[in-house]
Design a protein that fits this description.
This protein is an all-alpha fold. The protein has 10 helices and no strands. The C terminus is likely disordered.
């Protein structure tokens, strides 16, 4: 049975509010730091890991990943189709980017997108994640390892006859995070340009 409009709206609004929970800020504060005032001032996993500590960084990653996974899990329990699951996941990522509880100053959203992807395609995520992890250990380069992980994900999706809607939704979320990071951080600009 298709979910009603109220159910879809609840998943989207709930996803956004869940994504808006400032995990990095709360965990950082509990450890005696304000992630908005240290390092890159980004309320995410990497800044917390570097400036607050490894345990805090891992806790933020898990919390932010859960924010992406929970709307998908809730949608599956309600027997919602993949587009609705993807909408709830996208809303969680949007909440991480623009959290209503923190005056719309949020993080990059990668951990939240990863959590959504894992919930959308659990087996493929485990396979691709393992490939990416091995690649990181061997190559010690994150970009190449991410490419390797996604290449394995695509091959595994073919071999396992995966739900391509779910694969595409998870991939689209990660691509959206990457595109936003390029637009917001503008790494191609020189230091002199960024200070102008």
């Amino acid at each position: 049975m298709e979910p009603g409009i109220a159910t879809v709206a609840a998943l989207i609004v709930g996803g956004y509010l869940l994504g808006s929970i400032p995990a990095a800020y709360l965990i950082g504060r509990a450890a005696g730091a304000n992630v908005y005032e240290v390092g890159t001032r980004n309320p995410g996993t990497a800044n917390t890991f570097r400036e607050v500590g490894r345990a805090a960084g891992v806790a933020v990653f898990v919390a932010d990943a859960l924010k992406g996974a929970l709307p998908v899990v809730a949608g599956r329990l309600l027997d919602a189709p993949v587009p609705v699951l993807a909408a709830g996941a996208a809303a969680a990522v949007l909440g991480q980017w623009l959290p209503v509880f923190m005056r719309f100053r949020g993080g990059a959203g990668l951990a939240t997108a990863i959590g959504s992807g894992v919930a959308l395609t659990p087996l493929l995520a485990v396979i691709a994640g393992a490939a990416g992890l091995v690649s990181v250990v061997v190559l010690r380069r994150t970009v190449e390892s991410a490419v390797a992980g996604y290449a394995v994900l695509i091959m595994a999706a073919f071999l396992l006859d995966a739900d391509w809607q779910a694969v595409a939704a998870g991939f689209a979320l990660v691509v959206a995070v990457g595109v936003r990071a390029l637009i917001v951080e503008r790494p191609w600009r020189s230091t002199d340009d960024s200070e102008a």
